Amino acid sequence: DLFELNFDVREEITAPIVDCLYSDSESLQRVLDNKIIINFPYSSKISREFVMASSMHPDHVWEPQTTRLLLELNKKSQNVLIGGAYWGDQAILVANSIKNVGEVHCFELNSSNVKFLSKNADANNLSNIRIINKALWDVDNVLVNLLGEDSLETCAESRDDDPYAHKTITIDTYGKEHAISSIDLIMLDIEGGELKALKGAEYYLSMPIDKAPNLIF
Fold first, then answer.
1. How far is it, in rounded angstroms, from Cα 97 to Cα 159?
2. Among 5, 68, 108, 112, which has the highest number of CB atoms less than 10 A from its own CB?
3. Termini Cα distance of the chain
4. Count of CA atoms in the C-beta half-sphere (13 A) of 53
5. What is the 3-state secondary structure (H, E, C) of the chain?
6. Which of 89, 79, 105 is nearest to 212 (CA)?
7. Residues contacting residue 100 through CB under 8 Å, at least 6 positions apart
8. Is residue 1 pLDDT above 60, yes or no?
9. Distance from C-alpha of 207 to C-alpha of 7, rounded to nearest angstrom
10. pLDDT tens, residue by residue, 69-91
11. Maximum C-alpha span of the chain
12. Which of 146, 217, 202, 215 is nearest to 170 (CA)?
């Protein structure tokens, strides 16, 4: 009995078949139930689960509970900051929900993810997405590089002569540079770098409770 053996048919049989079908795809596309278009590479478990969604037009890309929470906390936000925006699995939905009132500041280092994030913003006519190719950190101008694969990539300090290195920036510095008086929501998914990013947001986090950002990480 497969159930008694704790055999996961989806993971052990269906998923490998789907991997074989789509692993060479350069770009895929799905449309959510609210007509949002999502272009994405088949490069991770997130991609696989999105392809295997039971609905032809799902209401989320990844992590449905997190998506619902984001959209609930996001209502009428003027400034949302997302660290680890990936190819927009959450950022596109957030930007769409506040396209007439607010802006989404997306931090992403992976060049492929940046390409798809930009493509998705264009596909959905979202002009309120700002893409920043820097790493959120607790200090500015440290050189870091990505380690790991795709959705599990994390940052580590890099050599000064590394041609692939990225500079860090704190949330406080970024906000000051762009005259952002308050941030309504901070979403972080940066594989272990969350504490450093939050340490770099002391100015915003120490605001009175009615002005301080909601946090999801």
1. 40
2. 108
3. 39
4. 19
5. CCCCCCCCHHHHHHHHHHHHHHCCCCCEEEECCCCCEEEECCCCHHHHHHHCCCCCCCCCCCCHHHHHHHHHHCCCCCEEEEECCCCCCCHHHHHHHCCCCCEEEEECCCHHHHHHHHHHHHHCCCCCEEEECCEECCCCCCEEEEECCHHHCEEEECCCCCCCCEEEECHHHHHHHCCCCCCCEEEECCCCCHHHHHHCCHHHHCCCCCCCCEEEC
6. 79
7. none
8. no
9. 50
10. 999 999 989 999 999 999 999 99
11. 62
12. 202
Could you give the CA distance from residue 183 to residue 179 in angstroms, rounded to a whole number?
11
Q: How far apart are CA 40 and CA 185, in angstroms?
A: 25
Which single residue is written with the structure tokens 């929470």? 69
Joined tokens for residue 12: 């052990």
Phi, psi of 144 (to 5 degrees): -135, 160
Distance, in Å, from the CA atom of 27 to the CA atom of 39, rounded to the nearest integer, reads 7
* Residue in the block written with tokens 């991770």: 44
